[in-house]
Amino acid sequence: MYPVDLHMHTVASTHAYSTLHDYIIQANKCGIKMLAITDHGPDMEDAPHYWHFMNMRLWPRVVDGIAILRGIESNIKNIKGEIDCNDRMLHEMDLIIAGLHEPVFPPENYHNHTQAMISTMAKGNVDIISHPGNPKFPIDICAVAEAAACYNVALELNNSSFINSRIGSANNCRKIAEAVSNAGGYLALGTDSHVAFSLGNFEYCIRIINEIEFPNNRILNVSPRRLLNFLIKRGKSEIIELSDW
Prior knowledge:
The longest helix is centred in the last third of the chain and has 14 residues, at 170-183. The chain has helices at residues 20-30, 50-54, 87-92, 110-122, 141-151, 170-183, 203-212, 224-233; strands at 4-5, 34-40, 62-63, 66-75, 95-99, 128-129, 154-158, 187-190. Helix content is 33%, strand content 15%. Strands 1, 2, 3, 4, 5, 6, 7 and 8 form an eight-stranded mixed sheet that branches. By secondary structure, the chain is of the alpha/beta class. It has one domain (4-234): TIM Barrel. It is globular and about 45 Å long.
């Protein structure tokens, strides 16, 4: 149903198990036409080196009919909204996701988690906030959704959060989807795959989308062009090799 997957990790993040090649093969099997490789930012203990991100320019834009976006799941570092994606890295990335991760930002309190997410969005560099429904980082869901709509940042529905990561996220994720719908913002779907076999499996995200009747025209994964137009609207340049996608 959704041909774009916006969140996955390769063996460059050493707690993941698949390569770029593995994901391309699986994409052709499961109907994914565009994928974003988003390994963890360098402040995470087992994340790839800064050079990994700077050298993504070597990747072809399209391999075996699959469009590849150069991305990062950066870490929100503090309540000021600083992330571990520096100025030079920002210019290399097609897609910047940012989230709260315990090794970099240990859980604090409702106010600080909310402030950290909103400050991150306000800085203007981040396109998607990852897994905002994590119960270890409680937030003011309505305030975050309204800020996301204001700053034209998508909030993620993370399918992995329903299966084997961040257990207990389901109720928060539903509330986030409802709040994004009410605020007029965008949802981004991500499998958060750490192995290629889960690529494109949005089963639990789709259940929530259908249950609350989330507007289809505000889901970024509906087509590659919708995602690319969203990024252009956020100030990114058109990717020439993907201009006709």
